Please model this.
Amino acid sequence: MTESNPRDWIGNSVERRDLLGATLVDRIAATFGAPRPAPDEDLPALWHWAFFQAPVDAQALGADGHPARGGFMPPADGRNRMWAGGRLTFRSALRVGREAVCDSEIVDVKEKQGRTGSLLFVTLRHRISQDGRLAVEEEQDIVYREPSPPKRSLDKPVADADWQETIHPDPVLLFRYSAVTFNAHRIHYDWPYVTDTEGYPGLVVHGPMIATLLVGAFKDANPRAQIETFSFRGLRPLVAPKPFDVCGRIESAGHATLWAANEDGPAHEAELTFSEEPE
Model:
């Protein structure tokens, strides 16, 4: 590989196996205040993000707490990392207490120019299987951006919602989600780092946690729905401890739009398709 060309990393792949163990599932449930699925019950949508995490030694981490780049991920020195969004297809349920396999591959790397400078977009594809069946197909968009002041508000109207839940993102919630997902990114728990080094006004709420809360609110409002696809993207960061709402509405049969917003406007948006279990 040539370090000067991040596109050389396209095709990098890795396989990880993990037991979707009840202990970690209980900790995720406690983090969200959600019911605890028992062994052999379905793992709630997006809880798989707590699994298949590489246990990287401390000396192999970069200054931001992420694994140092230039290994599996391409080098992006001097840039800040964000999870920009993703797309998922749920083909069958993952079951608690059973082993699963995640095959991951870098499928694209692109350099783009944004309003704040150069952006490096890395697209990851994950295929998660259990008991010989493909359960989840996922693409994740990771963006590395040059240091710049974060966007604090968005002048865009917020739609009327069919359902809405208010989230109070205190530091304990952020810490516990970092812990269950083995995420050492310092913007979520290290106040001096996130304010002095990356220029945020406070601790940043995890994009994956916001996505999980959006799906959880949808399921609370539509308990018979079976999620088939889910796509989401971040518009701007949400910062603790300012409350935000996770909302959504049914646009048509089997199609919903979801969003997260606070008094400063929308921050994340998503679309979801679903079918309904018969009564």
Notes: The mean pLDDT is 92.
